[in-house]
Structure formats: C-alpha cells, structure tokens
Design goal:
55% of the residues lie in helices and 14% in strands. The structure holds NADP nicotinamide-adenine-dinucleotide phosphate.
Length: 266
C-alpha cells in the first residue's frame, strides 16, 4: 500500500491531503503534520494519521509531499534528510523553488518531483504540472504520481523549463478569471441585480461556458459567434470588447507575469 505523507497541511497541503484521502480511501495510507494541530483535525476525521513532526512523516511515508512556505522549505528538507532514501519520492509544491535547490537541500537522497498546482485544487478542480526531469524516477512512480494528482484535477507532465510559463498562465490564471468575473458581477449589480444574484449567476456562467469549451471541439471563436445573432445585443457587447482589445490585454497580462517570473528566478 502506498503511504502518502504531507509536511505542512495548510491551504494547499491540507486540500491535497483531504482530496486524496477522500479518493483513495482504503487503497492508500495517509499521514501529515502541521505546526497548528487544529489544521490536522479535519484531516484526522478522514483517516489521516497526524504525526508529531516532519521527520516522522518522512519516516512513515513513501511519497512525501512538501507543502510549507518557500522560506520554510530548506529548513524542513534538512530536518527530514536522515529519513530520505532512494525508494521514497519527494514531491514539492513549493512555488518558485527549483529542483536543483530541492535536491541540494534534501542531500540528493531520493528522487525529487516539482509539482505546481493552482488554487482550484482547493475545491478538487485544480490544474497540476508535474516535473519528471529527475532521471532516477521509475516509470512505475511516474504513473502512480499521475494517477494520484490526476484524481484532483487535470495533471500534465512538463519539463522544469516550462514551469515559469505554466505559473504565469495557469498558476496565476485564477486571478485573471476572478478579475473578469468581478467585472461581470459589477455589471450585473449596475443593471439592478443583487450582489448575491449577480455572483451566483456569473459563477454558473463561467462553469457552464468552461464545460462547453471542454466538451465541444469547435473553435472558441465559433462558440462565441454562435451567441452573436446578426444585429443583436451580444454582438454590440462583443464589438465593445474587441475595440478595447481584450484578447491582446489577456496575452500581454500573461507575458508580463512570465517576465516577472523570470526576473524572480534570477
Ligand atoms: N495556496 C496556494 O494557492 C498555492 C498554490 C501553488 C503553490 N503553493 C505552495 O504551497 C506551499 C504552501 O502554501 P499554503 O498556501 O498552503 O501555505 P500555508 O497555508 O501557510 O500552509 C503551510 C503550513 O505548513 C506549516 N508548517 C511550516 N513549517 C512546518 C514544519 N516544519 N512542520 C509542520 N508544519 C509546518 C505552516 O505552519 P505555520 O503557519 O505555523 O508556519 C502552515 O500551517 C507554498 O510553498 C506555496 O508556494 C500554494
């Protein structure tokens, strides 16, 4: 039985562990630790064993998820080093921490996988990038990791060289989407809907449109044009968006984010 352990069960670690405990109940064993015991309680109700510290998690688990803040990560890796071994695998969700730094801090004692989730992982609908650049990873481990993280959303394998691009597009993506949603919620309120009605309708609008984009193979522009009756009200709104250059603005936003990501990694 695979034993999955998570060090740091805050927002992201807690959501990953809770999601996995729900999905792999009975087939995998789970443990975790957090400095705040109250963060472990809801996980314990799902059968996760609360460990006293990071070293105990690393001793117990074969798949160790590192989900502490970036400034805490190196210290934790040094602490768990004695428990690491080639038959274990370390999966780090720590943003912006390179595989080289992770390997160095963990003493090169086990294979290291970088994983980048986005915030919808908190509700079980994330997009995850997994970096399998470590040559010591077996194909069995890779398949297992794809199955584990794939159960929490869409899971892609990417080389580390594409992690900044992924972060700018998908890691940052929820911020772009929430900003667009906010604009439409405000429009709804301006037109006389309550905040609550407007927010509920806009959330359903995005969820339904996203499902169409996923299920119908037609180009997005065709899906857009299908809504625009000749001389109708939708084309009047779409013309306004086109004059404002919304698509160019979105492309530039992602490129600015990617440029900042490169700057930060230097
Ligand atoms: N949240 C996101 O949307 C998101 C998205 C992508 C990547 N990430 C990455 O995920 C990581 C965690 O982020 P988060 O938002 O989940 O942070 P968080 O809510 O602060 O969770 C981290 C938890 O780890 C605990 N911790 C720190 N050192 C520990 C140790 N030695 N032993 C046990 N527990 C320890 C922290 O306790 P204290 O508070 O007492 O320090 C905290 O409860 C970060 O590296 C971040 O870059 C997060």
């Amino acid at each position: 039985m695979t034993r999955i352990g998570c060090i740091g069960c805050g927002n992201m670690g807690g959501a990953i562990l809770a999601g996995l405990a729900d999905r792999f109940d009975g087939t995998h064993a789970f443990c975790g630790c957090d400095r705040a015991p109250e963060r472990m309680r809801p996980l314990e109700e799902k059968g996760v064993v609360a460990m006293a510290n990071a070293l105990d998690v690393a001793k117990d688990a074969s798949l160790i998820v590192l989900a502490v803040k970036p400034y805490q990560a190196v210290g934790v890796l040094k602490e768990i080093r004695p428990a690491l071994a080639p038959d274990k695998v370390l999966v780090s969700v720590v943003a912006g921490m390179s595989r080289e730094t992770l390997c160095e801090a963990s003493g090169g004692k086990c294979p290291v996988v970088r994983c980048m989730p986005n915030t919808p992982a908190l509700v079980g609908e994330g997009v995850f990038a997994l970096c399998f650049d470590d040559a010591s990873l077996s194909s069995g481990i890779k398949s297992e990791l794809l199955a584990v993280f794939g159960s929490l959303g869409l899971c892609l394998t990417l080389p580390e060289s594409q992690f900044i691009a992924f972060s700018a597009l998908i890691g940052a993506g929820p911020a772009y989407v929430f900003e667009m949603m906010q604009g439409l919620v405000q429009a709804g309120v301006t037109l006389g809907f309550t905040h609550q009605q407007s927010r509920q309708m806009i959330a359903a609008l995005f969820a339904g449109s996203a499902r169409m984009a996923k299920q119908i193979a037609a180009p997005l522009m065709q899906l857009r044009d299908d809504v625009c009756s000749p001389g109708g009200l939708t084309i009047a709104g779409v013309n306004h968006l086109d004059r404002a250059g919304l698509i160019g603005i979105l492309v530039d936003a992602v490129l600015a984010s990617e440029a900042r990501g490169r700057e930060m990694e230097q």
